[in-house]
Amino acid sequence: MHPFTGLATREDGAIKICCRSRPVGYVQNESLEEAWNNSTMQKVRKQVLNSERPDVCQSCFDLEDQGVQSLRQRHIEEHIPESRIKLYPDALNNLDKDYKMPFKIPTMEIKLNNLCNLKCRMCNPLDSTSWTDWNEVKEFYKKENNFLVPLIKQQVDRPGQYIGPFDNSNNWWQSFNKLLPHFKRVEFAGGEPLMDPTHFKILDALSAHGDNIEIKYATNGTKFGINKRENIYNYWPRFKSIALNISIDGIEDSYEYIRGNGNWKQLVENIREFQEIPNISRIVGAVAVQVSNALDLDTMIRYFLDEIGIVFYANMVRYPQVLSIQVLPKEIKQTVKEKLILVKSEVSEFSLVKKHPVLKDITYQQIDSVINFIGGDDQSHLWSDCISFNKKLDETRKQSFLSVHPEFKPYV
Length: 412
Prior knowledge:
By secondary structure, the protein is α/β, with parallel strands linked by helices. The chain has helices at 2-5, 32-36, 39-49, 58-64, 71-74, 84-87, 134-143, 148-155, 170-179, 197-206, 232-235, 253-258, 264-275, 297-308, 330-344, 351-355, 358-374, 383-397, 401-404, and strands at 6-9, 14-16, 23-26, 107-111, 119-120, 185-189, 214-219, 241-247, 259-260, 280-289, 311-316.
């Protein structure tokens, strides 16, 4: 549904079909309006309707081939509330014979810059100004021929550098302003959008149509705004509803280990505060599944659904490859599977699932995806690289992999 319902942006100026796709253009070279019907978009739409696999969408197909539900699949599911086929059932009505569409798209996924206060282990300088130890680990990205290596070399001249090509881009602002009356859903990610002045500038523009727009965030949940005016309490009431995907990649010590600069106790307090906001439609705990939380996933599922009252959603970390759960030793993989199978048997009894029965099948799907992924492509030959990667970050961040994860000691 993505090529027919919206566009996404990336901090380096890339214009994409969705947050997972490869670029179809760059804001430095063309406007959103031009990108919407450029030759790549026309080709992708044709391929999708012919049941082909567009190259720019390979990320989702790679997951699907391993039995993992992809973002593409989520948005063609009838039972998932935010699936685009459900939100926009008439999206193809205005498609012409050349696979062009009117520039009246209902959805935009926006990443404008890399301003962020956290330095998560699976992140990088393109996504966070706090990620200042790239030189210590870029060798691992080079080894896997990762696209970030040349991109960061091109974009980042110094540690902590701010990247914001959209800030003063006419290609962005002129096209975006044309879309204001047509939006039904605008999604923000980062960086951390709730500490970004440009995000609030966009909310100002959107608020005239706010009664028709749901705002969705991929946020680390640590911020409520940047000052007395630019904050969620002044802005969120202007909109139809607010959906939060809060990145929560561990519990207590494992959370603080993965999400550098994060504070677990404060995060939980913030979630409680978010839950009191009247027009919040849902809060999702979005977990970047990786080596450092693999053995905590069952605990997180119980905590999310039975204690704090938020949805569990899993994203598989695939790069850096050394943090993927596919690199775990065989015995640990088996333990993770057993824990997930056990917690799956408990899902129907969790308080949030009893309140919202649709979450039972959704949670089952998330658990099955993790189980399928960990049993997919075996990368356990990279386990020693995983240990080395974490040790290098431990040195710069004054942390200790084994103190947080003593269960890994027999394998180091």
